[in-house]
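User: Let's play a game. I give you a shape written as tokens, and you guess the letters that built it. Ready? Here's round one.
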């Protein structure tokens, strides 16, 4: 009975997200276009600015001085070297799969691998990367590269540069979906979920909860509770934040191939600087 209730509320939580925007389509990974998203972020929900705080506000092109180019271009080349399987990166071994989680420094376990080795270790055979995108990360001048893996149920590998090294963070599909260009996303852990922000803090990427819907592990006797940044709010406020999230500019996905890394990655990178 408890298992059935948990499944029911997991489906209800998904429906709560899908009914956003009054019937407007929502881009799941299976339907995301492999071209630059041309939709401008909506500013109509200014009353929610205190809740959403997009990372892009701290990382706009206007804030990038020409002096940074000598630093930025080598970082781009390091990303390309990793994506072309010509350089190693440090991959954290634990998987970020909940609405709020960060890599604990005391559990900083991982391995230095090339991308082909990382893909092989996951399943015992070489997985394929279906597409990639770049997104902003709060507290970082460097965008993160997100790789969507084929035939994994939607797992994603996030790459982020810091202090001379590229680091890898593994997200389950429910840990990082409906991804937006500003580094916000939706995250779900069954009967609990909501919107998150990617943030760089103390040398690690973390998933910071913005809004949460908690259905108490499917317990039908307890009404769901909704939170925004830890404070209890009404369901209407939660839905408003959900709608504002879905109205934001989608992350621009590109098909992953040797040609796209050589051409499209540079184009995507230049859009950030």
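Assistant: Ready! My guess for every position:
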């Amino acid at each position: 009975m408890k298992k059935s209730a948990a499944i029911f509320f997991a489906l209800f939580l998904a429906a709560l997200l899908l009914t956003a925007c009054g019937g407007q389509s929502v881009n799941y990974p299976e339907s995301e276009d492999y071209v630059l998203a041309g939709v401008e972020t909506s500013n109509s929900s200014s009353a929610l600015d205190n809740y959403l705080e997009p990372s892009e506000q701290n990382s706009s092109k206007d804030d990038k001085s020409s002096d940074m180019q000598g630093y930025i271009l080598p970082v781009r080349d390091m990303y390309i070297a990793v994506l072309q399987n010509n350089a190693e990166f440090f991959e954290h071994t634990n998987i970020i799969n909940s609405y709020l989680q960060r890599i604990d420094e005391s559990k900083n376990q991982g391995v230095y691998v090339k991308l082909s080795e990382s893909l092989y270790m996951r399943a015992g055979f070489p997985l394929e990367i279906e597409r990639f995108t770049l997104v902003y990360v709060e507290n970082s001048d460097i965008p993160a590269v997100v790789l969507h893996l084929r035939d994994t149920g939607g797992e994603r590998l996030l790459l982020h540069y810091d202090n001379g090294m590229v680091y890898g963070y593994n997200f389950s599909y429910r840990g990082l979906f409906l991804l937006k260009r500003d580094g916000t996303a939706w995250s779900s852990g069954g009967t609990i979920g909501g919107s998150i922000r990617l943030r760089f803090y103390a040398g690690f990427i973390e998933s910071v909860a913005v809004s949460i819907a908690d259905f108490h592990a499917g317990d039908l006797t307890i009404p769901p509770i909704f939170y925004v940044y830890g404070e209890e709010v009404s369901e209407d406020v939660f839905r408003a934040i959900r709608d504002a999230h879905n109205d934001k500019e989608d992350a621009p996905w590109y098909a992953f191939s040797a040609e796209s890394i050589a051409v499209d990655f540079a184009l995507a990178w230049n859009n950030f600087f």
